[in-house]
C-alpha cells in the first residue's frame, strides 16, 4: 500500500466591502488510516444569519469526522445532507451557505472524493496546470444568484455535486468566490507561487497578492500530498 501524508495552510480574509467575515474553513487531519477532510463555507453575505449557518455546518462536520475517525471510508454526499439537515432544523432564519469538501485518502490506491454546493470551488494542481474539479451552482449570466446551497428546504441527492477519482494531482486548492475572483485573473502567477513554496510559504506570498484587494471575503485552503 502506498500511503500519503498532507501539508496544508489556509487563510480567511474579510472583504473590504464587508462589515464581518462570513466565510468558514475546516481542516481535519489525523495520523490514522482513512481520510483527511478539508472544507470551506461561504455564508450568503446579504443574509444576517449566514455566519450562523457556517458555524453550524463546521461544528456538525467536526462531529461527524471525529465520531467516524476510525472508519476507512467516508460518504461525502451523506455528510452534505447531514449538514443541510442541521442547518434546516436550527432556529435561524435563512442561514444559507455554500460548501466545498475534499477528502484525501491515506491509502493512495483509494479515490479522492469531492462534494460541493454553490460556487465555492476545488481545484487540482500539478506541475503543468490548475484544473477546476467542481461545478458552480448559479444562474447563467448571474453568478451572484445561487441555485444550490446548504439550508435548502428540499435538497435532493442529485443536487449535490460529487466526484471521486484515483488522483494524479499532488496538490489541491479549495476557495470561496471572493478568492476565486482574484485567482482567476492571473492563475499562472498563483500557480508559480504554489509550486515554488511549501503551503505555509505560499500562504505568505498569496496573502500579499489579495489582502486589501478582495472586496468580498476571500478564503482558501492549499493542500499538498506527500508519499510516505
Structural write-up:
- With 228 residues, the protein is of the alpha+beta class.
- It has one domain (4-227): Phosphatase 2c, domain 1 (4-Layer Sandwich).
- 26% of the residues lie in helices and 32% in strands.
- The chain has helices at residues 50-67, 76-88, 177-183, 187-196, 199-210, and strands spanning 4-13, 23-28, 35-42, 99-105, 112-117, 121-125, 130-132, 138-139, 142-146, 161-165, 171-175, 218-227.
- Strand 8 and strand 9 form a beta hairpin.
- The termini are close together.
- The mean pLDDT is 93.
Highlighted features:
alpha+beta, 228 residues, 5 helices
Strand element count: 12
Distance between the termini: 10 Å
Tell me, rounded to a whole number, the average pLDDT: 93
Count of runs of 4 or more consecutive helical residues: 5
Inertia-based shape = globular
The radius of gyration over CA amounts to: 17 Å
CATH topology: Phosphatase 2c, domain 1
CATH class: Alpha Beta
> What fraction of the residues are assigned to beta strands by DSSP?
25-35%
Q: Can you say what the CATH homologous superfamily is?
A: PPM-type phosphatase domain
| Strand order within the widest beta sheet | 1-12-11-6-7
> What's the CATH architecture name?
4-Layer Sandwich
Query: Unreliable segments (pLDDT under 50, ≥5 consecutive)?
Result: none
Write down the domain tally: 1
Structural class per helix/strand content? alpha+beta
- Major beta-sheet overview: 5 strands, antiparallel
Q: What helical percentage do the residues reach?
A: 25-40%
User: From N to C, what is the helix and strand string?
Assistant: EEEHHEEEEEEEEHHHE
Amino acid at each position: 500500500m502506498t500511503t500519503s501524508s498532507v501539508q496544508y495552510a489556509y487563510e480567511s480574509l474579510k472583504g473590504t466591502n464587508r462589515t464581518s467575515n462570513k466565510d468558514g474553513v475546516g481542516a481535519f487531519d489525523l495520523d490514522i488510516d482513512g481520510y483527511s477532510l478539508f472544507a470551506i463555507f461561504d455564508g450568503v453575505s446579504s443574509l444576517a444569519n449566514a455566519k450562523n449557518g457556517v458555524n453550524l455546518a463546521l461544528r456538525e462536520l467536526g462531529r461527524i469526522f471525529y465520531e467516524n475517525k476510525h472508519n476507512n471510508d467516508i460518504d461525502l454526499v451523506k455528510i452534505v445532507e447531514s449538514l443541510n439537515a442541521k442547518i434546516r432544523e436550527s432556529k435561524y432564519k435563512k442561514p444559507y451557505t455554500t460548501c466545498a469538501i475534499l477528502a484525501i485518502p491515506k491509502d493512495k490506491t483509494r479515490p479522492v472524493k469531492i462534494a460541493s454546493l454553490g460556487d465555492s470551488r476545488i481545484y487540482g494542481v500539478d506541475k503543468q496546470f490548475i484544473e477546476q474539479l467542481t461545478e458552480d451552482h448559479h444562474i447563467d449570466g448571474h453568478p451572484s444568484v445561487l441555485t444550490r446551497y446548504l439550508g435548502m428546504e428540499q435538497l435532493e441527492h442529485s443536487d449535490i455535486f460529487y466526484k471521486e477519482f484515483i488522483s494524479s494531482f499532488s496538490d489541491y486548492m479549495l476557495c470561496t468566490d471572493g478568492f476565486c475572483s482574484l485567482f482567476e485573473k492571473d492563475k499562472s502567477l498563483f500557480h508559480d507561487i504554489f509550486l515554488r513554496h511549501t503551503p505555509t510559504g505560499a500562504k505568505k506570498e498569496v496573502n500579499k497578492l489579495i489582502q486589501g484587494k478582495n472586496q468580498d471575503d476571500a478564503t482558501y485552503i492549499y493542500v499538498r500530498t506527500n508519499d510516505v
